[in-house]
Design brief:
By secondary structure, the chain is an alpha+beta fold. The chain is built from 9 helices and 13 strands. The chain has a 7-stranded antiparallel β-sheet. A 6-stranded antiparallel β-sheet has the order 9-8-7-4-11-12. Helix 3 crosses helix 4. Keywords: ATP-binding, Kinase, Nucleotide-binding, Transferase.
């Protein structure tokens, strides 16, 4: 069962945003929830990253404020494959690992990287959630996330950095069109991201029919691929029916990064970012491929955000809905706004944007 603070996994399965208390009453209440919890399946995802050994420099992932040869915390489950591994290819550097929550790349990962670097440099400044949120908002502004069209070079937009291919139910690779304005892509396994927000939402019956889109299920073998232009675009998630740019749903996803006008990009797995150098060789690329890797069992509370494709009460059984996303009552929407320390898209109420620099 998932536990943790500011963690999308326990939040998505109904266990709240804080760990249970240690007094007798709190423990008994928690154990009652465990006893009454239901078992759900959740998709597990494998990630492979491969590049040809560069002629100059290193293309190893760089963690915030860590030596280049030390893997980021988010990639501790990802390791460089051994020479005897089936995935090893002579002349290539290969990493492999997995995730449950999400993989993202682009500006949101860049802001997260800056946040983690600042926290490692000045840990004494990060003592409570309000300070963390305020710092995150300031870094988002200083990194140009709120004015991306002015401060973010187009050479770092996803369409310029990478060729993206997806594999749907047909089992064939096809090119995914990514609009030139998209600066961040998120591949979601859960309906919870960046403080409990749901970037995919629930497509209405027309979109299900015309684009073959479905609601986000945690056990359907599909990742939801969502794009964002900037932080203002992300703020629509705070609206009851808000969602990002729905790009696709896929069983497998492949990114092929080339240097172009940028010598690096930023990536993130389950909230932990890293800086990914891009090879200087013109004919060398960094390949990132995500594929389904079975399922595991998870305990969930009644009424949790996560839905199963096999549950009769799931949104797919209500085709008469006209709204593009499920309505959230005001209390629940307010809970989402307060949840988490790393609200990528939110400026805290206490922060005066005119004072940010």
């Amino acid at each position: 069962m998932p536990l943790g603070t500011g963690n999308n996994l326990p939040f998505a399965f109904g266990w709240g945003k804080k760990n249970p208390g240690t007094d007798v009453q709190a423990v008994m209440s928690f154990m009652k929830k465990v006893k009454n919890a239901k078992e759900m399946k959740i998709d597990n995802w494998h990630i492979l990253m491969r590049m040809r050994a560069p002629k100059e420099g290193s293309c190893d992932p760089i963690a915030p404020l860590e030596p280049p040869l030390e893997l980021p915390h988010s990639l501790h489950a990802v390791h460089r494959v051994s020479p005897t591994d089936d995935l090893n290819m002579e002349g290539y550097i290969t990493f492999r690992g997995g995730f449950w929550n999400y993989f993202s790349m682009g500006m949101d990962a860049q802001v997260s990287y800056a946040f983690h670097s600042e926290r490692k440099l000045h840990p004494e400044k990060f003592k409570n959630q309000l300070i963390n949120q305020s710092t995150y908002a300031k870094l988002g502004c200083s990194q140009g996330w709120f004015l991306a069209s002015l401060f973010h070079p187009s050479s770092r937009n996803i369409a310029h950095l990478a060729k993206v291919e997806i594999m749907k139910r047909s089992g064939k690779w096809e090119k995914l069109h990514v609009p030139n304005s998209i600066r961040s892509i998120v591949c979601l396994n859960l309906p919870s991201f960046s403080g409990g927000l749901n970037p995919w939402g629930t497509p209405d019956s027309n979109k299900r029919r015309d684009r073959d889109l479905t609601p986000p299920f945690v056990d359907d073998g599909l990742l939801e691929v969502v794009g964002f232009r900037d932080a203002w675009h992300g703020l629509v998630l705070l609206a009851p029916n808000g969602h990002g740019t729905r790009l696709a749903q896929a069983h497998r996803i492949r990114f092929e990064f080339h240097r172009g006008g940028a010598d690096h990009t930023f990536m993130r797995i389950d909230g932990e970012p890293w800086k990914q150098p891009l090879p200087s060789d013109d004919d060398n690329t960094v390949l990132v491929e995500i594929s389904h890797l079975g399922q595991v069992n998870m305990l969930a509370t009644d009424g949790c955000k996560s839905k199963s494709v096999n549950d009769p009460s799931s949104p797919c059984c209500h085709d008469a809905e006209d709204k593009d996303s499920d309505e959230e009552d005001l209390a629940q929407a307010e809970e989402y706004r307060k949840f988490g320390a790393a609200d990528t898209f939110r400026i805290p109420d206490e922060v005066d944007i005119s004072q940010l620099s």
